[in-house]
Design brief:
Shape: globular
Helix content: 25-40%
Order of helices and strands: EHHHHHHHHHHHHEEHEHHEHEEH
Number of strands: 7
Number of helices: 17
Largest sheet: 7 strands, mixed
Bound molecules: flavin-adenine dinucleotide
Distance between the termini: 46 Å
Structural class: alpha/beta
């Protein structure tokens, strides 16, 4: 498999090794990748005021969102680590923030359980596939947010909801294509959280779509509408009509997991033979990756999945984030970055890997070592139908 030269600068490296595998112009987000950047963000984490400010959009200095998601997504920061880091924060902010960490954990548990079923309406019949482009960029609120998504690869939760709602609830375009566009750009893009976010916003998760209107823009980004070319003729002046979506056939997998042990992955390391490499995956790129930690003397390998990248056409900012992460790790221990097929690499070498709660993990066979996933809470076999039913089964 071709070796990727991590000594090149990110721009040159993408140009040299990733032709045909990304969308848009080559660019790098203002949110840097890597364990060092993640620890820096964690060290300056201050969630005072979070409960009141997490949904603020503009001006940017009013935002309470922490922007930790790209690091959490790739387990550069585990949910447990972040959960522990706020133990001295004011009660209301701590509880709200931890609630959001639990939403992330819920997304992971749900996806681990239902897998690709999360690409279909889970509980209610929202528009999945109608064609079109649901983001009219002549509206300043939409244009600003899509531009931020494209330039930084990140959005606050509030504007993710605006965009998802505008796409499907207002413009009646199928949510699957909208989530794919967002997934392409987001540095924190995960199938688990992105599909969950779209399903819940468009009503497929709750039956009650989230309505987006000028009201939220005035509240969360005051002043934005005054500069909008459509200010005398705002297409979202009123809330969309409230609807209750039809329920889809009840899916028993949401009520009970017949094989929770497979969903959760191993709870202790599983060894079949001596490993020669640690294989990192996109779901676990941190210094504390369990397989990496258990094998301090083995070389680390990351294989960019050529077929998947060619198909997905992720933004170059996402690819840059991965490269920065590998370059940063390479300053502490040797990392080999390859282009090819990670599953083939795992078949042909004796690799140690950390379990990832995603359907594609099943493609790994013949692993030398499998290490447990760093869950915040161990998955249970009970209901994942709603966040509250899922959460109620944990004592804390
Ligand atoms: C349509 C839509 C798509 C989304 N796509 C993704 C995605 O691909 N990846 C992703 O990580 N999150 C996604 N989210 C959830 C959420 O918007 C982001 O996690 C959050 O905005 C990240 O910013 P932050 O780190 O500043 O969050 P903070 O508000 O600071 O929260 C701290 C952490 O809690 C977790 N979190 C916060 N809100 C949520 C939530 N609603 N659901 C799940 N986890 C949450 C994240 O890990 C986040 O980093 C999506 C939400 C919506 C509505």
């Amino acid at each position: 498999m071709p070796v990727i030269d991590l000594s090149l600068d990110v721009h040159a490296l993408i140009e040299k090794h990733f032709t045909g595998m990304y969308s848009g112009e080559i660019g790098v987000s203002s949110i840097g990748g890597g364990q060092t950047a993640a620890y820096k963000a964690l060290a300056s984490l201050d969630i005072s005021g979070y409960a009141n400010k997490r949904s603020e959009v503009l001006p940017k200095n009013r935002r309470g969102a922490t922007v930790l998601s790209p690091y959490i997504r790739h387990n550069l920061l585990t949910l447990s680590e972040v959960f522990g880091a706020v133990k001295h924060a004011p009660f209301k902010d701590r509880e709200k923030f931890r609630d959001e960490l639990f939403w992330q954990e819920y997304a992971r548990h749900l996806y681990a359980r239902v897998g690709t079923r999360l690409f279909e309406n889970l509980r209610f019949d929202a528009n999945v596939v109608s064609p079109g482009d649901g983001w009219n960029r002549d509206m300043l609120c939409i244009n600003e947010m899509v531009s931020e998504l494209e330039n930084d690869g990140w959005l606050v939760n509030q504007t993710r909801m605006w965009l998802a709602s505008h796409w499907t609830v207002r413009n009646d375009v199928g949510w699957l294509a909208g989530q794919e566009l967002m997934f392409r750009e987001l540095l924190d893009g995960s199938r688990a959280a992105n599909l969950l976010g779209w399903q819940w916003t468009v009503g497929a998760g709750t039956g009650k779509p989230y309505g987006f209107a000028k009201w939220q823009v005035d509240k969360r980004a005051p002043g934005l509408c005054t500069a909008c070319p459509l200010k005398g003729n705002c297409p979202i002046n009123e809330f969309p009509e409230e609807v209750s979506l039809r329920q889809v056939e009840r899916d028993p997998i949401l009520d009970h997991d017949a094989d929770v042990a497979s969903t959760a992955g191993p709870s202790k390391p599983v060894f079949t033979r001596d490993a020669t490499h640690v294989l990192l995956t996109i779901d676990s790129l941190g210094d504390n990756d369990p397989a990496l930690k258990a094998n301090p003397d083995l070389p680390a390998v990351f294989v960019f999945n050529e077929t998947a990248l060619t198909k997905l056409q992720l933004s170059s900012r996402r690819i840059a984030f991965y490269i920065q992460t590998l370059q940063d790790l390479n300053t502490r221990r040797p990392v080999q970055a390859l282009m090819g097929d990670p599953y083939l690499f795992a078949r042909e070498n004796a690799v140690a890997v950390t379990y990832a709660p995603v359907p594609s993990f099943k493609k790994f066979v013949n692993l030398a070592e499998v290490h447990p996933y760093p869950w915040l809470r161990q998955p249970h076999a009970g209901s994942v139908r709603s966040f509250s039913s899922w959460r109620s089964q944990f004592k804390s």
